[in-house]
Design goal:
Number of strands of chain A: 5
Number of domains of chain A: 1
Shape of chain A: elongated
Strand order of the largest sheet of chain B: 1-3-2
Largest sheet of chain A: 4 strands, mixed
Number of strands of chain B: 3
CATH class of chain B: Alpha Beta
Helix content of chain B: 40-55%
Largest sheet of chain B: 3 strands, antiparallel
Number of helices of chain B: 3
Strand content of chain B: 25-35%
Oligomer: heterodimer
Radius of gyration of chain A: 17 Å
Order of helices and strands of chain A: EEHEHEE
Shape of chain B: elongated
Number of helices of chain A: 2
Distance between the termini of chain B: 73 Å
CATH superfamily of chain A: Hypothetical protein apc22750. Chain B
Strand content of chain A: 35-45%
CATH topology of chain B: Translation Initiation Factor IF3
Order of helices and strands of chain B: HEHHEE
Number of domains of chain B: 1
Structural class of chain B: alpha+beta
Helix content of chain A: 25-40%
Structural class of chain A: alpha+beta
Radius of gyration of chain B: 20 Å
CATH class of chain A: Alpha Beta
CATH architecture of chain A: 2-Layer Sandwich
């Protein structure tokens, strides 16, 4: 499955537009990480636990979007966008959406 | 009395460790950016047509936390308004780090460009001071083997 945030690909032709596909994932981390993070708030620096958490969360959301694209017979998702919102203390929603298309070849 | 001493200690710790970490990070960023100069990240929506490419979505993210000193200074600036310089350097570091991680992923795919680069910054609540996440993503352009 081809996935890109370009709106068109120069050497491929879109045969069919299959509409919007999307995936989302809401995650929060465990208390241990929160405590470690509060120490980091004194010294500063990267919160690796959170970086990983959001990375994994994004992968999951993307996988859900691709699943949806596959189920409607797409072979590519174009113009993919990500959106992140922190919806509650300690939880973030990752949302990913794009246009499912059928490319030639 | 103890409270004031504790506050001063936190402030000093934040200043010392924060500054050291920042200086080291900037030094690392400069080196890695020079290495990755051969793989340009381009904000254009129009991909190159000079040859055939395969595409793949790549991205890099980083969550950074402010330190106690930066948060304190930011709080002071907040009263009078104006430039919050400590946060400017923090977010600059995060953004450059995110771009480098995105480029690392693209490099692993043997890409020669990253096109249509987008940034996203989100505030994430962690404790009292908070943290922010920067995400950079784009389309890695991977030259197709066989033709040139």
């Amino acid at each position: 499955m081809l996935i890109s945030n370009l709106e068109f690909l120069p050497d491929r032709k879109v045969m069919r537009h299959l509409g919007l596909v999307q995936g989302s994932s809401v995650r929060s981390k465990h208390v241990g990480r929160d405590i470690a993070a509060s120490f980091k708030n004194i010294f500063g620096g990267e919160l690796r636990g959170y970086t990983e958490l959001l990375h994994d969360s994004r992968e999951e959301a993307t996988e859900r979007m691709l699943e949806q694209a596959r189920s409607i017979g797409a072979n590519a998702v174009l113009n993919v966008r990500y959106s992140t919102s922190s919806i509650a203390a300690g939880a973030a929603e990752i949302f990913v959406y794009g246009t499912a298309v059928e490319l030639d070849g | 009395m103890y409270e004031a001493a504790f506050f001063l200690l936190l402030l000093l710790l934040g200043y010392g460790f924060g500054r050291l970490a920042e200086r080291r990070h900037f030094a690392r960023l400069v080196v890695r950016e020079r290495e990755m100069n051969t793989l340009p990240a381009i904000a254009s929506r129009y991909p190159p047509t000079d040859r055939a490419y395969a595409q793949h979505l790549v991205g890099g993210n980083v969550v950074v936390s402010s330190d106690y000193f930066k948060s304190f200074v930011a709080g002071l600036v907040n009263i009078f308004g104006g430039r919050v310089a400590p946060y400017e350097s923090l977010i600059d570091r995060a953004r450059r780090e995110a771009v480098l991680r995105m480029k690392d992923e693209a490099h692993g795919l043997q890409a020669t460009y990253v096109f249509n680069v987008k940034f996203e910054t989100t505030r994430i609540a962690v404790g009292r001071t908070g943290a922010m996440e920067v995400l950079a993503y784009g389309t890695a352009m991977i030259p197709s083997t066989g033709d040139s």
